[in-house]
Design a protein that fits this description.
14 strands; about 325 residues; binds beta-D-fucofuranose
């Protein structure tokens, strides 16, 4: 727990008093028996990835003996800012959060810094130029994920003689994974001038919006050859739209997604998706390790990457039985 030092001048004398954040019985930021208190602000519950991520963080906090104050922002930045401010007021030991969008964090991060509470970015990055506002960023390389998706398509279409029309379902507008997965993919497909993105729109990382946005694509674009979806859930929603339009997902329209959650891997093994780039939601163990280190005042790497792979349909069949999420 964090000890707050408050200095006050009392009738000409300097009185120094130490207030312990764990002193009061009903102080919600107190950990039992010296437990570290972690305030965590989650994006929401938009996808299978997010659900697995939340579960892992809750389980690993418990396993590490860390008291978790968990707050679900329901996809809204203002809710995350409110949650972070409340963590500061409560005097938690460490704050971690997965920023819904990249911009607009400087003020609240400065408040945490001024209060002496270390912040860890989990899963998604912020665009703050002042990198002293947080201790480290734990998560995937989303540009690399987009590039791997594009590289697969370039190989797949190596013998194409005519245009290959790609529609893109973007993640949440302004979020790090949407920005970076778009960038990496665009860079990779530049290697084959036949491959063109003919429509790109957000599906907000959800199945429902993936479906409706794909319905729009199917109505407005005549020849869709490929769908690139920034996550499995949007791809799965799009599959419903493609089937409803009388087309065969994975055959009439090739589908590439990112995440590799169980439902995505199942669709891949059934031939409805063609390729998935993995993005691991299991960040809990590494996060708790970082929480302990920054709390102890140790220096940590400013960027901690997670390890990931890619899956073809055959590889999905093999991996599915042992898939944890
Ligand atoms: O790919 C998507 C989720 O930030 C990596 O957010 C995460 C992404 C993930 O909603 O499914």
């Amino acid at each position: 727990m964090r000890v707050k030092m408050i200095a006050a001048a009392v009738t000409g004398l300097l009185a120094v008093s130490a207030l312990s954040a764990c002193g009061g019985g009903d102080d919600s930021a107190s950990g039992d028996d010296g437990q570290i208190v972690l305030g965590f602000s989650q994006v929401g519950a938009e996808s299978g990835w997010r659900t697995a991520n939340t579960k892992d963080i809750q389980e690993q906090a418990a396993a590490a003996g860390i008291k978790l104050q968990f707050s679900d922002a329901q996809g809204k930045q203002e809710n995350q800012i409110t949650a972070i401010r409340s963590f500061i007021t409560q005097g938690v030991d460490v704050i971690a959060f997965s920023p819904v969008v990249t911009s607009g964090w400087d003020a609240v991060l400065k408040e945490a810094k001024d209060a002496g509470i270390p912040v860890i970015l989990t899963d998604r990055a912020v665009d703050s130029t002042d990198t002293t506002l947080y201790k480290t960023f734990l998560g995937s390389d989303f540009v690399k994920e987009g590039k791997e998706a594009g590289d697969w398509l370039v190989k797949e279409e190596a013998s194409a003689t005519g245009p290959v029309n790609v529609v893109e379902l973007q993640g949440t507008t302004g979020s790090a994974p949407a920005i970076d997965r778009q960038k990496g993919f665009a860079e990779a497909i530049a290697a084959n001038p036949n491959i063109k993105i003919v429509k790109s729109q957000t599906g907000n990382f959800t199945r429902a919006e993936g479906k409706t946005t794909m319905e729009g694509f199917l109505q407005s674009v005549k020849d869709i050859d490929v769908l690139y979806a920034h996550n499995d859930d949007m791809g799965l929603g799009a599959i419903e739209a493609i089937e409803a339009a009388g087309k065969k997902p994975g055959t009439d329209i090739k589908i590439i997604t990112v995440d590799a959650v169980k439902d995505g891997m199942t669709a891949l093994s059934e031939g409805k998706i063609n390729y998935i780039v993995e993005c691991s939601p299991l960040l809990g163990t590494q996060l708790m390790d970082l929480v302990k280190k920054v709390h102890a005042g140790e220096t940590v790497e400013t960027r901690v990457l997670t390890e990931e792979t890619t899956f073809t349909q055959e590889q999905a069949k093999e991996a599915l039985p042992n898939r944890k999420y």
